[in-house]
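Example A, followed by Example B.
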Amino acid sequence: MTTQTDHTEISMLISRFFRVLDERKFEGDWARSYFTDDVRTVTPIGASDGIEAMEHTNEALERYARTQHIASDVLVDVEAVSGRARASWNALMTHVHHDVTLQQRDKDANPLFTVGGYYEAELRGMREGWRISRMSVRVIWTTGEPPVLPPEIQPRPVA
């Protein structure tokens, strides 16, 4: 059974994580404030395992001048006995291209790459609070063009 406290703590964790992305505050062990050491994430460009993979989030965001991530309709289901939870939420993710990207495209290039979708996550209750152990994003729609990714980061099958 999910308590209001659990729902609030998990919702705040999600909101703070999205805010960190947009403010790009990646100091020290920032990822440990949100994720377990063995976290697994699945995105449209592939899967990543371990907290070290999360430490490279800033590299992905540097492809854009600015971003805004909005989470809404957070649904939480806590298994009190196991200390685990599942959460899902809608997400609207707007990415503003760098001027140099727009200059490389035609003069009518859309300055925004916007993604609508939802996240699903598994969480563990830790001494420090709830932490995400699994997280995936499902893209429902996009507008605009994504950035050109270097060959080493091209989309790959998820195992």
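Example B, a separate protein, is given below in the same form.
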Amino acid sequence: MKSLHSNILKLMDNIINKIATNIHAFSVSDQAFTRCRKLNVVDLIRLILNMGAGSLNSEIFHAFPNINSRMTASAFEQQKAKLKPECFKEIMAELSQANNAPQLLDDKYLVVAIDGSDFNQPFNPKSENVVQTKDGRTYRRL
């Protein structure tokens, strides 16, 4: 599992770095991302893609635990405003194209999610993981 996870993260990093080298195609002006800022374009994209459901300040805090590398929420918003939505469409399109052949975990399991999310499979009464109790109730074994 770890190698599959690492491969996808390496692929995502390569795609983000490729986008960053051509960031002017995905920014609102040619002047955007030309100056050296505390929040560079690679860190900005990673932060946006990794954000959870917390407040903006808490997400920044978790992404940048070192106070010297942390920026304000206002600085984040200003940098984010420089990006076009097409940037993320391109990242997802490249990730989908590069990973079109399904990789199997242990050569038999298809990994549906690796980000900690749950995947609720449709109920199949003929599955070997279904257990029926004496009172007739049916449960799926996890």
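On Example B: The first helix runs from residue 2 to 21.
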